[in-house]
Amino acid sequence: MTSGAGHPSGHDAVLPAEMLAALAVRDDGTYLDATFGAGGYSRAILAAGAGRVVALDRDPAAVARGRALARAWRNFTMIEGCFGDVAALLGACGITRLDGAVFDLGVCSTQLEDAARGFSFMRDGPLDMRMSGSGISAADVVNDADEATLADILYRYGEERASRRIARAIIERRRSGPIRTTAELASLIAGVLGRQQGRIDPATRSFQALRIHVNDELGELERALAAMPDLLAPGGRLVVVAFHSLEDRLVKRFMSEHSDRQARPSRHLPDLPSRPEALFRPLSSRAIRPGPAEIAANPRARSARLRAALRLPDRPAQPAPENLPCS
């Protein structure tokens, strides 16, 4: 997730034109911005003439920005909460149907740039990484988890091949005192992996893994996607912008499993496992990526992938076949 287009921070939302094209905003439609952040997508959807926009965010700072926006736009509502709870949060506001929903996944630029939030190894600060400001912190995980758990987190969520060596080094370092800051952890990881010219910072994967674990980001995404078939009206649009492979694979799998473009089992082979009901139609055959001009203007856009799908009408229930005698 990046900050919003037109936001005073100066950062740009990723793929804004492509997002709006996929969302197909209508003046009588209700749209969800499930990851408000700095508000770039919400502002763009409002400016496109949406009838109503509802935004979610668990970050209190983002919620404060959203409530300020709500004072300027009467058809905008800001809700504090995790998007994994989207059905309950919207239901509490009397919203049971959406004409579109957009998810801009990952960490917001404003979070990365605030050293006190502890998301970035580029800025020394407390080892926190909590999007909501509550619950276990990255420091709790780093200082309390056993070696096997640490290695599993780093490998599963960061795809870090040296996860066991890093976990072992963390355990060894803890014997002389807790690891409290982002700089301490980044330095430890660099000591294990070394620094290689032209490659990503050695701490990148481990910091990503801890952030995803602390905020249960993949679990939240799975729960939110599972709620979309019931929340989106027929003809509604689901748009997801992901920034790393774990998120994108999860979104791609969800859309593929519920796509009407998958081959269905033959009625002549009833023992084959049935596929889930077709609920969505992909709006493009592959993920949409930013072009060279956008990447040059906003380097954080380079890893973005946009996937979008159309909610199909529910199929009417079919009557049970009659048991006719064989002739």
Can you put this structure into words, describing what you see?
The protein has a 7-stranded mixed beta sheet, sandwiched between helices. The protein has helices at 16-23, 40-47, 60-72, 86-91, 109-112, 138-144, 147-158, 163-174, 182-193, 204-215, 217-231, 245-257, 292-297, and strands at 30-33, 52-57, 76-80, 98-104, 232-242, 280-282, 305-311. Mean pLDDT is 88; it is low at 2-10 and 323-327. By secondary structure, the chain is of the alpha/beta class. It has 2 domains: 16-109 and 217-311, Vaccinia Virus protein VP39 (Rossmann fold), CATH 3.40.50.150; 114-215, DNA polymerase, domain 1.
Radius of gyration: 22 Å
Helix content: 25-40%
Distance between the termini: 64 Å
Order of helices and strands, N to C? HEHEHEHEHHHHHHHEHEHE
Query: Which CATH first-tier class of the largest domain would you pick?
Result: Alpha Beta
Count of strand segments: 7
CATH 2nd-level architecture of the largest domain:
3-Layer(aba) Sandwich
Structural class: alpha/beta
Count of separate DSSP helical elements: 13
Number of domains: 2
Question: Can you tell me the CATH topology of the largest domain?
Answer: Rossmann fold
Q: Into which percentage range does the β-strand content fall?
A: 5-15%
Largest sheet: 7 strands, mixed
Contiguous low-pLDDT stretches (5 residues minimum) are: 2-10, 323-327
CATH level-four homologous superfamily name of the largest domain: Vaccinia Virus protein VP39
